[in-house]
């Protein structure tokens, strides 16, 4: 991402969904990150149900293994199989995203009088492209700015595109970058889009979705960002 003064400078990211990582570390039992905890977490039953485990609310070796695998996949630390608030926060968000189905603009918050527009719902960490009232692509999960690096809300326009962009601030690759506000951009990221705690303001996507956005959008297209990301 380019350096663009006080409003610029945003890059890369991850999603901080419910509680800060420090709180998560404080709630989980003190153990080596490579171990598997025998402790029952405060969200044990909900986490078990999400993972298709017997929802008895009591930690077992099999429960811990399943929870730990989920944490490892999505970069949730400490990765010890503890059913804490961050782990449940990711799962809860996934449930809410799934419930949206193919009607992401049901509340009419994203403008339908702009023609083709990319919408970003910070509250649900979802994005899609629509043309009037017609859904063109999505909705897809994204990860936006963490606390103090929030993705800015409002109506914007794509003003610069760079398919092989590399951040001048963080020296990380930002493939399929489409900048829409002072250095904040859509771009692909090489980790889970549910990985806490959040980006430095960019809207991170899977490579598949970032490629599709690149093919569907162009310079001058509108982008509308609304809502508030949990934990910010």
From TrEMBL:
Q: Which residues form the L,D-TPase catalytic domain?
A: 115-226
Protein name, entry field = L,D-transpeptidase family protein
InterPro entries linked: LD-transpeptidase (IPR050979), LD_TPept_cat_dom (IPR005490), PGBD-like_sf (IPR036365), Transpep_catalytic_dom (IPR038063)
Q: Which residues constitute the signal peptide according to the record?
A: 1-32
Organism in which the protein naturally occurs: Streptomyces andamanensis
Q: Which domain of life is it from?
A: Bacteria
* Catalytic residues identified in the record: 187 (proton donor/acceptor), 202 (nucleophile)
Write the record's keywords in alphabetical order, separated by commas.
Answer: Cell shape, Cell wall biogenesis/degradation, Peptidoglycan synthesis, Signal, Transferase
Return any one Pfam family short name. Answer: YkuD
Which SUPFAM superfamilies does this UniProt record tie to the protein?
L,D-transpeptidase catalytic domain-like, PGBD-like
Which pathway does the protein contribute to?
A: Cell wall biogenesis; peptidoglycan biosynthesis
């Amino acid at each position: 991402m380019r350096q663009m003064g006080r409003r610029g400078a945003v890059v890369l990211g991850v999603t901080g969904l419910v509680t800060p990582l420090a709180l998560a570390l404080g709630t989980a039992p003190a153990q080596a990150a490579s171990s598997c905890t025998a402790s029952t977490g405060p969200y044990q039953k909900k986490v078990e149900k999400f993972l298709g485990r017997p929802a008895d609310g009591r930690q077992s070796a099999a429960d811990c293994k399943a929870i730990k695998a989920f944490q490892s996949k999505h970069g949730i630390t400490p990765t010890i199989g503890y059913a804490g608030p961050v782990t449940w926060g990711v799962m809860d968000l996934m449930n809410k995203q799934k419930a949206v189905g193919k009607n992401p603009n049901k509340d009419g918050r994203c403008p339908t009088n702009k023609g083709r527009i990319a919408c970003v719902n910070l509250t649900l960490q979802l994005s899609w492209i629509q043309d009037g009232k017609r859904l063109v692509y999505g909705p897809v999960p994204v990860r936006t700015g963490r606390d103090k690096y929030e993705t800015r809300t409002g109506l914007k326009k794509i003003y610069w595109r760079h398919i092989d962009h590399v951040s001048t601030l963080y020296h990380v690759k930002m493939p399929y970058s489409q900048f829409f506000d002072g250095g904040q951009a859509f771009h692909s990221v090489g980790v889970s889009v549910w990985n806490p705690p959040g980006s430095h303001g960019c809207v991170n996507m899977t490579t598949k979705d970032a490629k599709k956005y690149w093919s569907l959008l162009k310079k001058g297209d509108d982008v509308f960002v609304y809502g508030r990301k949990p934990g910010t």
